[in-house]
Amino acid sequence: MDMKATKKKLGLKEKYAHMTRGLGWDTTYQPMDKVFPQAAFEGIKIHDWDKWEDPFRLTMDAYWKYQAEKERKLYAVLDAFAQNNGHLGITDARYLNAVKLFLTGISPLEYVAHRGFAAAGRNFPGVGPRVACLMQSIDEVRHAQTQIHALSNYNKFYEGFHAGATHQIERVWYLSVPKSFFDDAFSAGPFEWMIAIGFSFEYVLTNLLFVPFMSGAAYNGDMATVTFGFSAQSDEARHMTLGLECIKFMLEQDPDNLPIVQKWIDKWAWRGIRVLTLVGMMMDYMLPKRVMSWKEAWEIYFEQNGGALFNDLAKYGIKVPECITQCTVDKEHISHQAWATFYQYAHASDFHTWLPNDEEMDWLSAKYPNTFDKYYRPRFTQWREMADKGERFYNNTLPMLCQVCQIPMVFTEPDDPTKICYRESEYQGEKYHTCSDGCKHIFDDEPEKYIQAWLPVHQIYQGNCFPEGTDPTVEGFDPMLKVLEWYHIENGKDNMDYEGSGDQANFAAWRGMATQNT
Amino acid sequence: MSTVFIAFQTNEDTRPIIESILADNPHAVLDEQPAMVKINAEGSLVIKRESIEERIGRDFDLQELQVNLITLSGNMDEDDDQLTLAWKN
Amino acid sequence: MAVKALYDYNYPAADTQDKFHGNQLLYVGWDDHLMFCAPFAYCLPPDTKFSELVEKHLPHSYSRHPDWAQIDFAKAVWLKSGQPFQPDMNKTLAEQGLKHKDVLRLQTPGLNGNGTYF
Q1: Measured between alpha carbons, how far is A272 from B82 in angstroms, rounded to an integer?
Q2: For chain B, what is the radius of gyration of the CA atoms?
Q3: DSSP assignment string, A247-260
């Protein structure tokens, strides 16, 4: 970068003071509590908003300058990628299914984060957090846009990229998992939003999402994803700092805030970890060239780094989230359980799945010595035997879902990985089922919220997931095909096993054309 | 004691920055990963503007770090001359 | 605890029985058979006989498993919400008190995918 540092007229701290607090004012035509109606109802007590400090002390003028530089770098690489058939440089087209998962499951969340931080910025009476939320809001919409731009290059050549970021997030069964996570946060107040997304997701969990995904992309030759990923991540460090600053600010302002903040940390750590099951599966099963196992990433970024964070927060009375015991057990299971799920429901997904080969299973044995050979290898081996006989297993019945995380009830008891974990609550005479103590606890705390959940399986049975004008009473009606049509999943193209897919055949043919003249 | 860390993209902009950090923090440990350089340090880590300027031969604004930053851990404090990361426990 | 809100927070449940066109939801899981990753959700008329569930709906889902044909339903153990449940094959779901969103677990002692829980 050839950037000229301009001669400073003001020091950083002075400039920050002028460009944030110096721009704020108290309203006089209307009382402040009417202008900021959401500031108090969650019970968080703030006495002095001026105690808020942004450690980066970033002001809007500097923000535009650095963001513009990031964009120039990003689009230069994207042009080069498109001009040089970058898509043929990846290790294997199988890898792209991880990218489809990113586009369908993560990019829409960036957009919701954009809206959520815009709302939080509007609702906080303090100028410091308002400016920080404004920047984060603009960052998030930039992420959504750059991801869609970068991945549109793959949409020219491969299946399953055509509707992910916009259409499918509202409809496809497994995408209700990340969507409901953000809906839950967005429908809370601004302080809970900051703990949910700013702290739990951005600070505690974001490394588990972005670092492995981007290292994985780099390992697998995916220049487009590495580039947008790193461009987005250069903003994440600021988001993480905002999340940490926010929680410290709440805890320092009033001792009464502690139990509220602790409750939110417990809730959102668990909600976030359940969503990250998808990332665990991506790391352990979807990368032709693997970076590290989900368990290893968990140990570095959650146990060690999160441990350091919670040691630091202990001085305020914050305890490590209560779900930690369960998570320590789960880290050796969830990626396998998730892949087994997508393997058998591949006909209903917008990406391909496959069975791990022998070399991959040996890698999994080495990474998961306590669990893989004992519990999961036999499952994959038996599905392999079925597939070899031409009877590749597709599950033909809709699964039961958890009312809170909305993941099919695939998780097992903490003390017995052979038994599905069933938890049940009753509210206003109706039964509700959850996948774990963590999700049951969240349900029982705010049942009025979760009884409204848009559970894809129930919605299909209610008849709400067919294209307009569908008549389910006609002879030979196939509900599954109609649901796929409504999902915008092209049956036989976007879904099913990777073996025999168009992506597999095309990639082999195009690579051949790239290295030969015939 | 807890570990703080900071990670940058691997490129020509960050090479002198990483050299400076390693020189100013003898206890820091370099961890090179695909396309990413991570520096881990027990307790705290300091990044000094002057050290970077010595290596790049021009004025440097510490906020330029943000262009190539990937992630960090620890409580941060930044002014015109240095950026520190620390766990105070 | 109730949801904290700026107004009276009261919304209808999304999945009450009246929304299922005369049917009810019934969940069934088969213990120790993780070839099927999760319990199933069935949407059935309340006058479905239990025998129809066992002879038609469950085999549609489960019969690809080699253990399925081995089940002796006289010896099978059923749980409803984790508690012992004795189904009557000749009675309907409604007649034996199976309500909307009840969950059954089928246990078939001795059958567990040859010890692999497949």
Answers
A1: 34
A2: 12
A3: HHHHHHH-TTHHHH
Parent domain of A285: 12-332
C and B adjacent (3 or more CB pairs under 8 angstroms): no
Task: Answer whether A touches B (≥3 Cβ pairs < 8 Å).
Answer: yes
- Measured in angstroms, the CA of A337 and the nearest CA of chain B are apart by 28
Cα of A418 to nearest chain C Cα, Å? 6
Residue A449 belongs to a domain: no
A210–B71 C-beta distance less than 8 A: yes
Using alpha carbons, select from A57, A38, A44, A225 the residue that is nearest to residue A135: A57
Strand partners, A432: A425
**Between chains, do C35 and A42 touch, taking CB under 8 Å as contact?**
no
Structure token pair of residue B45: 């880590």
For C81: left if phi > 0, alpha if psi spans -120 to 50, otherwise beta; the answer is left
Q: Establish how many alpha carbons lie within 13 A of residue A305's alpha carbon, considering only the half-sphere containing its beta carbon.
A: 25
**Looking at the 3D structure of chain A, how many domains does it have?**
1
With respect to residue A487, please indicate whether it lies within any of the assigned structural domains. Answer: no
Q: What is the mean pLDDT of residues C19-32?
A: 97
Structure tokens at A508: 């082999």
Cβ pair C40:A400 closer than 8 A:
yes
Q: B79: which chain A residues are within 8 Å (Cβ-Cβ)?
A: 11-13, 57
pLDDT under 50 in chain A at which residues? none
> C107 at the A interface (CB within 8 A)?
no
For residue B36, list chain A residues with Cβ-Cβ distance below 8 A.
211, 214-215, 218
> Which residue among B71, B75, B89 sits closest to A237, beta carbon to beta carbon?
B71
Cβ-contact A238, A135 below 8 angstroms: yes
The pLDDT confidence band at residue C65, using thresholds 50, 70 and 90, is very high
Q: What is the pLDDT of residue A515?
A: 80
Q: Which residues of A touch B7 (CB under 8 A)?
A: 211
Please check whether residue A43 lies inside any domain of the structure.
Answer: yes
Contacts of residue B88 in chain A, CB cutoff 8 Å? 312
Q: What is the pLDDT of residue C45?
A: 98
The CATH class of the B3-86 domain is alpha beta
Contact A458, C21 (CB under 8 A): no
Please tell me the predicted confidence (pLDDT) of residue A6.
65
Query: Which of residues A215 and B85 earns the better pLDDT score?
Result: B85
Can chain A be said to touch chain C, i.e. do they have 3 or more Cβ pairs within 8 angstroms?
A: yes
Q: Is C100 within 8 Å of A422 when comparing Cβ atoms?
A: no
Q: Tell me the chain A residues in contact with residue C3 when contact means C-beta distances shorter than 8 Å.
A: 446, 448-449
- In three-state secondary structure terms, C108 is coil
The chains in contact with chain A, meaning 3 or more Cβ pairs closer than 8 Å, are B, C
Closest CA to A160 of A390, A23, A350: A350
Question: So what's the ipTM on this one?
Answer: 0.98
| Per-residue pLDDT at A53 | 81
User: Chain A closest CA to B47's CA: distance in Å?
Assistant: 13
pLDDT digits (tens, 9 = 90+) for A101-126: 999 999 999 999 999 999 999 999 99
Q: Residue A109 sits in a domain of what CATH number?
A: 1.10.620.20
pLDDT, residue A7, reads 65
Query: For domain C22-107, which CATH number applies: 3.10.20.560, 2.170.150.70, 3.40.50.300, 3.10.180.10?
Result: 3.10.20.560
Quote the CA–CA distance of A227 and A176 in Å, as a whole number: 28
Tokens of A301: 């970024």
Rounded to whole angstroms, the Cα distance separating A154 from A88 reads: 10
How much of chain C, in percent, has pLDDT values that exceed 90? 98
**In-domain check, residue A517:** no
